[in-house]
Amino acid sequence: MNCELEMDKPHEECGIFGIYSRHDDVALNTYWGLYALQHRGQESAGIALADGTRMEVDRGMGLVNEVFRNGLPKLDEAHIAIGHVRYSTTGSSLLANTQPLMVNYSGGRISLSHNGNLTNARELRAALELKGSVFQTSIDSEVIVNLIARSPLAAIEDKIGESLSLVQGAYCLVIMTENKLIGVRDPNGFRPLCLGKLNDGWVIASESCALDSVGAEFIRDVEPGEMVVIDDNGLVSRRFAQEGRRALCVFEYIYFARPDSSIDGQSVYSGRFAMGRQLARESGFKADLVISVPDSGTTAAIGFSYESGIPFAEGLIKNRYIGRTFIQPEQKKRDLGVRIKLNANKSVVAGKSVVMVDDSIVRGTTSGKIVRMLKDVGATAVHMCVSSPPIVYPCYYGIDTAVRKELVASTKEVEEIRRFIGADSLHYLSLEGLYSAVANIPCEQMCYACFNGKYPAGVPCQDGSDSSKYMFEAACGQLGGGGV
């Protein structure tokens, strides 16, 4: 069971990485790239290789170093590789659901890694099964693979383009054939994807920090609705869809991305620092110290300290050597779950009033335990600041934010939440304050659906609804006849 500190946070679905190079060790570079993206998924990892005629894939449950403890996959002439780290949002936590997926079909072999979540996956899957497709996993990524395999078009680029015209929702993909590496970003650009140059080769990754880890030069972000195709002739960019309303997930800047990454022209660190400064202006809180809930709250806490003049200190210490999982004690001792991962620094906070900065509150249970922990070691007051607005609505685009009834802000007002977590004060960053913090990207080009309920690409239909029936019938019609 995952540590409760991690469970009471939003979770990104995964990180993806791809490389095409005739002069670099593509397996090793993919390993390091996935290591840099480990924060995006700690549940499973995988690497697939291609040498022009053959493919190999190695996947497993656990962290990158756990999965490849006994070595990396090998293919003597491999010059293409893709990789994946996963946190499950769609599909269970099972070995069968690990990626990259690899399939044989009439046109050869393809391997695919997916970051995101399809809002019409259920309807497409049912239509595909009706047409004879057989599924080996419970993840929506396999729907994309089946659509590609079924396409009657000749070129792989055309197959992918036709297939993606049927899907809705969020997706970034790295796709590998025996001799090509292909990167794709959905027309709304919900999830990040960037492009880098490594010697004579190319790298595609979820975040720029992964390019840095392998010594690749950042070239640019992949545009929404763009497909980049890489082979021995170089890189070709093509449009597979018209760019929709840009809607990059704002939680990339609040929580998911590493602070040293830059996404769509906005530095993650600068955005979080600005969130902290705005929190200080809005809240007006006075205290002896500013502390953070490490690590994702730290940059905003430093920004709060800078703006307010209140000194920053390490009031909470994170155990970074606990590993991915541990066995939780029985229910009556569940509070120890947070203490194993996080501990209050008594010598810093005892006798002090503190401003505690965190990136978000999902269920609120962990925040309450951290507040009690600080007061147990002598903090005289805990004023909590959150560097995002209240999360009121669930995400359908690849983030696990729990169902709406479990989101504390969907059922409680701010004062009720303050009492629930036991803080002396509570302030959430305003939506307008968040807009100003990520000023390099206009607010109309980002997705704030978890805060305001405005979903740029719709939501999944519920079973049995008239709209679900319509979507299923429409999917059947689009897929046409025949089986795979």
Q: Main traits of this protein?
A:
484 residues, alpha+beta, Glutamine Phosphoribosylpyrophosphate, subunit 1, domain 1, Rossmann fold, 2 domains, seven-stranded antiparallel β-sheet, six-stranded antiparallel β-sheet, 18 helices, globular
Outline:
By secondary structure, this protein is an alpha+beta fold. 30% of the residues lie in helices and 25% in strands.
What does this structure look like?
The protein is of the alpha+beta class. The chain has 2 domains: 10-247, Glutamine Phosphoribosylpyrophosphate, subunit 1, domain 1; 267-452, Rossmann fold (3-Layer(aba) Sandwich), CATH 3.40.50.2020. The chain has a 7-stranded antiparallel beta sheet. Strands 6-7-8-9-13-14 form a 6-stranded antiparallel beta sheet, with helices on one face.
Please state roughly what percent of the residues sit in beta strands, choosing from under 5%, 5-15%, 15-25%, 25-35%, 35-45% or over 45%: 25-35%
- Helix-strand makeup class: alpha+beta
Q: In one word, what is the shape? A: globular
Tell me which CATH architecture of the largest domain applies here: 4-Layer Sandwich
Output the radius of gyration. 23 Å
Tally of separate domains: 2
| Largest sheet descriptor | 7 strands, antiparallel
CATH superfamily of the largest domain: Aminohydrolase, N-terminal nucleophile (Ntn) domain
Q: Which residues sit in consecutive blocks of at least 5 with pLDDT less than 50?
A: 324-334, 464-470
Give the beta-strand count.
25
Number of helices: 18
